[in-house]
Amino acid sequence: MRLRNIKGAGEAVAASTYVVQEPEQQAGNWNTLFGNTNPIHIEIGMGKGRFLMTLARQNPGINYVGIERYSSVLIRALQKMETDPLSNLLFLCIDAGCLEQIFAPGEAGRIYLNFSDPWPKDRHARRRLTSPEYLSRYRKVLDGSGQVDLKVLMKLLGGRGIDSILLEGGGILNDSALRAGIVHEMQVFLAPKVFGGGNARTPVAGIGVELPGEAVSLELQEVSQIGKDLRIEYRVRQVEGCLQES
């Protein structure tokens, strides 16, 4: 990856109030720095900050820390913060290899990896943010809630030559997959039975949507009969509001 050096970027990052200097001194004290006890979510390799700033704006009850090692990239996020400041977002200009020195064990609730440098050559495998070495670091600072970032999972599978999977799960997993934007086709099976009940399970759980225009749009592909059941195949056209966190 080639980066265009921006004159004065390093000085601007060092002087910014949105960038935490000497972050290793904050290990175990990030909630004190934010002034509340809200959960802490981290994005590593945040780039220009669009993803994280959107989340911070939509979720004021969560504290966000964005990590970007290149000052010439981070300065773009700082420029956005100058015009649209967010009190629940701070930045670090560091290498993520020192994550364990910056956050105490269990201090982070979630880690995002979006559009990370793939380091495709085998000799650079240890530099990948999804390498076993980095995954071990993440486990040490995460609080153990056990959430899996499905976008990252798909990238890992793609790196192993797997370009499609069959996902068969319950309402929570189906909702997570749709919101992550990883579903391209959907098959629905209808059996000639009615169960009913106020507590009947839904094929897609989660918080749902507020407006019809925010719903997942499906395009009918095929209807076929299998025994007494009907199989309906759809193509997923769009998913709105996938950045919302529940």
Helix and strand topology:
Layout (H helix, E strand, L loop, with lengths): L8 H7 L14 H5 L5 E5 L5 H9 L4 E5 L3 H13 L5 E4 L6 H4 L7 E4 L18 H10 L8 H10 L11 H9 L5 E6 L26 E10 L2 E10 L8
Give a quick summary of the entry.
Helices cover 27% and strands 18% of the residues.
Give a verbal description of the structure:
This protein has helices spanning 9-15, 30-34, 50-58, 71-83, 99-102, 132-141, 150-159, 171-179, and strands spanning 40-44, 63-67, 89-92, 110-113, 185-190, 217-226, 229-238. The chain has 246 residues and is α/β, with parallel strands linked by helices. The protein folds into two domains: 9-159, Vaccinia Virus protein VP39 (Rossmann fold), CATH 3.40.50.150; 171-238, no CATH class. The strands form two sheets. A four-stranded parallel beta sheet has the order 3-2-1-4. The chain has a three-stranded antiparallel beta sheet with strand order 5-7-6, with no helix packed on it. Helix 3 links the parallel strand 1 (40-44) and strand 2 (63-67). The protein is elongated. The two termini are 34 Å apart. Residues 239-246 have low confidence and may be disordered.
Helix count?
Answer: 8
- Briefly note the CATH topology name of the largest domain: Rossmann fold
- Beta strand %: 15-25%
Let me know the number of strands: 7
Q: What is the CATH H-level superfamily of the largest domain?
A: Vaccinia Virus protein VP39
Q: Write down the secondary-structure element order.
A: HHEHEHEHEHHHEEE
Low-confidence stretches: 239-246
Total discrete domains: 2
**Percent of residues in helices:** 25-40%
The 3D shape can be described as: elongated
CATH architecture descriptor name of the largest domain: 3-Layer(aba) Sandwich
| Major sheet characteristics | 4 strands, parallel
Mean pLDDT reading: 86
CATH class of the largest domain equals Alpha Beta
Alpha-carbon distance between the termini?
A: 34 Å
- Specify Rg, calculated over alpha carbons: 21 Å
Class based on secondary structure composition and strand pairing: alpha/beta
Strand arrangement within the widest β-sheet reads 3-2-1-4
